[in-house]
Design a protein that fits this description.
The complex is a heterodimer of chains A (about 220) and B (about 120). With about 220 residues, chain A is of the alpha/beta class. Chain A contains five helices and seven strands; from the N terminus they run βαβββαβαβαβα. Chain A has a single domain (about 30-70, about 85-215), classed as Rossmann fold. A seven-stranded mixed sheet of chain A has the order 2-3-4-1-5-6-7, sandwiched between helices. The longest helix of chain A is centred in the last third of the chain and has 24 residues, at about 195-215. Chain B is built from four helices and three strands, in the order E-H-E-H-H-E-H. Chain B starts with about 25 loop residues before the first strand and ends with a helix. The chains are: A alpha/beta (about 220), B mainly alpha (about 120).
Chain lengths: ~220, ~120
Amino acid sequence: MASANSAEAAPEAAGSIEAAGSADGPQYLPPSVQGAVKILVTGPFGVGKTTLVGSLSEITPLRTEETMTTASSGVDDLTGRTGKTTTTVALDFGRITLNPRLALYLFGTPGQQRFWPLWDDLSRGALGAIAMVDLRRPDESFDVLGRLEEQRIPFAVAVNTFPDTPSYPEEELRSALDLLPDVPILFCDARDRRQSYDLLIDFVDHLHRNSILELQG
Amino acid sequence: MSGPVRPYVITGGRSRSTRAELALESLVSALPEPPELPDHALLNREHRRILGLCHSLLSVAEVAAHLGLPLGVVKVLVGDLWDLGAVQVLPPVPQAERLPATLLEEVLVGLRQLR
């Protein structure tokens, strides 16, 4: 379908990320806010997660880090302690104050298998996930699509339309990505605020309609 | 980051918060008039930075980003402050208390207005 080239420049780096301790102070939520919900924006490295979060967020996207400890299989620890490897994962996120009572957080969440140890914590309580796909290298999204299905997280596929993104009929895409019929396939240039909003609205509309169907049993 | 100290030294080696319900999107603010903290409550520098930052409402994730601390560390420290009654934490909107359809409709209406 498309050639995978791992050396490809990552558009993700183009997003403006505020480093910790920057001159801009924190932008506080209105004191009337009573709670927050979250949606994950996931996909492989360089697919445009941070760009999408940046197009939607009312605050300059922030970056935070989570450390992930995994048991290592090496036997080179001379102290005899259990071997552990610590990996640092960067998460970029943004925020939308929906109304005086409710805020929405959008968490860019890495979609590679080696980050699964973090996923339970990140996805707990999420309304759903937007799984971004770059059609020039769709195979890099297979891991995360499988994970979302396994964890039963409601999701939509968002094709980030880069200028040279090839176009395919939806049926062909659905079959190539092995998606169930009820998973929406949406298209969006993640650099464009209006398109990004339409994408998010379509996704939440999909979740809303499904929740009503569930209510009606 | 926070200087040449391994992150979990700040938490006394704890990697889990006493408050399992703390999420990235949990909202934190320092209480305007915090209770008299008991003598044994030895707040470290990072606890105090969190109190200083959270004079108004921010999520756990924002606290971590602004202080340059890993999320897990911030969860432990915010959990400590919560246990001491020094901060209030608004839980993520509990899904059980509201019909998902009602919550999703509220999100949808908000997004359409902002579009």
